[in-house]
Amino acid sequence: MREKNHKYLPDPFDSKGALLYDARLMQKVKIPVTIDPVKAAQKRSDYEGFVPLVNLTRLTQSLLNPQGEVTVRVECGTDQQGLTVIQGSASCEVSVTCERCGEAMMVSLDCNFAYTPVKPGDDSALELIPERYDVIEKDEHGEINLRQLVEDELILALPLFPMHDEAVCAVSAASMSFGDIGPEPEKPNPFAVLAELKKK
């Protein structure tokens, strides 16, 4: 499993370094659930739109409120190596529980991603893929689940222990008490017991 890199990657579709996709008009469409990445790359398809949070059921299990939308931007193309690349970004505001005070708090989730699709079990293809790309498997129809990809990225962006800034949290770190466990009860020394037996 590659280490996730959430820095925004340069456009792999531009051989001269100019961000050509900025000049292309983005299609204001509903983000599809699945896409054929090869066909989308050939057409250099771009998508910009929203995914309702309520549709991302694995993510919303960790949220207080499933209401809201994820802003998604996806760009499809082919890089200099001839690899199909699906790259983009996703962002949203979600409500979670503060681990310090137990109250609700808002967290901004932002992620950038770059994937290249492979056939399931095609280990030889993995050796040719640069580390700047993550790998996603195509299904039996040659498609990838775009909604699941976005959801995976947002789950990775979710903080493990969300907490308010201490200045605004209802419970300060200094006032937190974890209790006194007390001294551990003494256990008999097995060597002392053996010494007593030898005296008898």
TrEMBL record:
The keyword Flavoprotein does not apply. InterPro entries: YceD, YceD_bac. The keyword Manganese does not apply. Keywords: Ribosome biogenesis. GO terms for cellular component: cytosol. One of its GO terms (biological process) is ribosome biogenesis. Plays a role in synthesis, processing and/or stability of 23S rRNA. PANTHER family: LARGE RIBOSOMAL RNA SUBUNIT ACCUMULATION PROTEIN YCED. Belongs to the DUF177 domain family. This is Large ribosomal RNA subunit accumulation protein YceD. It comes from Rheinheimera pacifica.
